[in-house]
Design brief:
mainly alpha, Methane Monooxygenase Hydroxylase, Chain G, domain 1, elongated
């Protein structure tokens, strides 16, 4: 596997992991009725997802331009990790809305 591909893959994993962590921190803050902090953490989660999405878009653009990307288990894992983080962040927003309504 080329170093460039490995860097891209690790970037997806890191940004996806950061997003999921920020989303979890947002839920914990909302549980404690610290809604301003929860909102900040969701913003950070979304920023991490945007970074990951840019990386993913670069891969897709290269593929569409005829540059074949090696598909490895690590690449599949990075995509799975990113998609899970997106879903988790969406769910975190819903949970925060519920906590706000209860409060």
């Amino acid at each position: 596997m080329e170093n460039q591909n490995l860097e891209v893959i690790m970037g997806l994993i890191v940004h996806g992991g950061n997003a999921k962590s920020y989303a979890m921190e947002a839920i914990q803050a909302a549980k404690e009725q610290q809604f301003a902090e929860a909102d900040k953490r969701i913003v950070l989660a979304k920023e991490s997802l945007i970074e990951a999405h840019h990386t993913q878009t670069d891969l897709l653009t290269a593929e569409a331009s005829g540059e074949n990307t090696e598909i490895s288990l690590l690449m599949v894992h990075s995509q799975d990790h990113l998609m899970t983080s997106i879903a988790f962040t969406d769910l975190a927003e819903e949970l925060i809305a519920i906590y706000k309504k209860i409060a």
